[in-house]
Fold:
Amino acid sequence: MAGAIRPSSFRRGPTVRILLFAFLATLILAFISLFVGVSDVSLPALLSGTADARAVEIFFISRVPRTLALMLAGASMAIAGLVMQMVVRNRFVEPSTAGTSESAALGFLVVTLLAPEWPLMAKMAVSALFALGGTALFLRILRAVPLRDVLLVPLVGIMLGGVIGAVSAFIAYRTNLMASLLAWNMGDFSGVLRGRYELLWLGLAGGILAYIAADRFTVAGMGKDFTTNLGLNYKRVMVLGLVIVSVVSAVVLVSVGSIPFLGLIVPNLVSLVVGDNMRRTVPWVAVGGAGFVLACDIVGRLIRFPYEIPIAVVMGVVGSAVFLYLLLRTPRHAS
Amino acid sequence: MQVDAGSDNGVVPANGDSRFRGNDTERENSSGRKKLSRPALVLIALGVAALVSIALFMTLDAKGSWTFVLSFRGKKLLSLVLVAYSVAVSTVLFQTVTNNRILTPSIMGFDALYVLIKTGVVFFFGVSALVSIDSQIQFVVELFVMVGFSFLLFRWLFLGEERSLHLLVLVGIVFGILFRSLSQLMQRMLDPGAFNVLQDTLFASFATTDPTLLGIATLIVAITSFVGWRLMHTYDVLSLGRAQAINLGVDYKRTVAIILVLVAILVSVSTALVGPVTFFGLLVATLAHSLIGNSKHRYVLPAAVLLGFIALVGGQTLLERVFAFDTALSIIIEFLGGLVFIVLVLRRSAR
Structure:
């Protein structure tokens, strides 16, 4: 296995500075996100209480929930990507390169067709179950490959995602749900309002769970034998990881639509700075994910002002460019 | 009447196909005719099947005036045939040049590049560029841009340092995603009017092919085929690999460059006619290789083309007339192609 683990080259001085900078940048971005939009909401007016009722309403019903949703979704998707990379032991997997997101969409489609009256929570649960199944299928296929090539894993995952996506497209096409399916596959925060994003807190819970179990995942990332040797139940760690990933994917898909590449690039960029000890990386992956999503969403809001471009589109461009950079960065894959 | 005769014929090649493949020994005593090799038999069977699907496509469920039906369906048939031909030939040649059986131009994000170029034209030059210029001239210009861009990409990926195949495939797929996202981004930035016009020119599928480009597309495909035909003798040599080919006297860089240009042109033609189809080429090329059983291009190329005819024309007839599924053919091809791809990749790495 050509290492999912990179030795943590943790030099205190510059690293801390970079991370501090990232944290500050995320805070600033969150602040910007609160005040960017078509309606005019200004901070001084809000503080002095002179803002008209409409602006206050917009601030608390739309802007604050949207910013919170962005940070929650970004942080939890990035952590989900990190967990997945540890569990699969490959730095190029994340929910959208392993068939997880597509399975979640299929699950949501099926439950929408068969039980449209169920509450959103139940639909989300079904979607998460499908995501879990899809990921398990992905891992089962990978087991058939005796020699795991680092690049083969995301390759198979993307194709599996395509096949599952084709099944969804076929069902949606036959049942006139194509528009809904497109919306689920295209992450977009413009519809986030108070009362419509709270499910995302569940994603954060998944992230915290991942943080608590971080040491186990780090050990699991070293392989089955190593894990068992240290007295850990490898299978249980795997299942925990996959459940976290599935729930987070389903939650994000159901509330805002899927966001491609996020879980792939943020952990990879963070690990270039901090290394692979998950206990140490989780907070920074969370901060990085939140900051990245905020930045992309703000770009999407400003680039065609007053109209908005869905975050999935912006993320698709930025994410695939960064992914290409990561792939071609060093010639170490040449063989 | 017509219908019955057609479907009766349809049974023959299917049975014949499996019989021919089944056992080589039985062939000698089962019939007195001249011994045919397996590739020749496969080609004959495929040819019959292709003819049957074309006949069915043209005649099934035809009501009213025959002249109208035939000319209306004839145009559609011609575009399907052109697409099948372009995709099959470009895929097989591309795989020969890059020396693998997994990578295809569309998996490398080539058709996405075409869409990107088209979107870029509207984005940077305005919608007037799209409306005012004759669509055929436009197509030719786009072809040139496409060939230029794709050639740069190819050269960078294939003629530079040696890279692992998996890296190439993955990079190709991600490039495809990048192209698609960029087009989407630009499309979102357009005003709705311009977007509608663009959507009209991009909106093509197996059920609604773009008839305005048929003439020029036929011409381009014919010229491309002629150039390709002249290079026929080098294909088998090229498939031995770079070192062998050079050793055997092929001007490697020049030949590969020409073939890659041909591939880029053919991909543009098919994308312009029916839009992007990621896995169609992979499906027909893989099937052709396994049916023919060897990798001689004079068998594999026609077999792939015939399979393309059967899949597109036959599949479209089946879906449109029998199941009334409309445009679902591309979804089904995507599904099957994805499965074939996974199996191919896994089998290759298991070896």
Summary: The CA atoms of residues 243 and 252 of chain B lie 9 Å apart. Confidence is low (pLDDT under 50) at residues 1-32 of chain B.
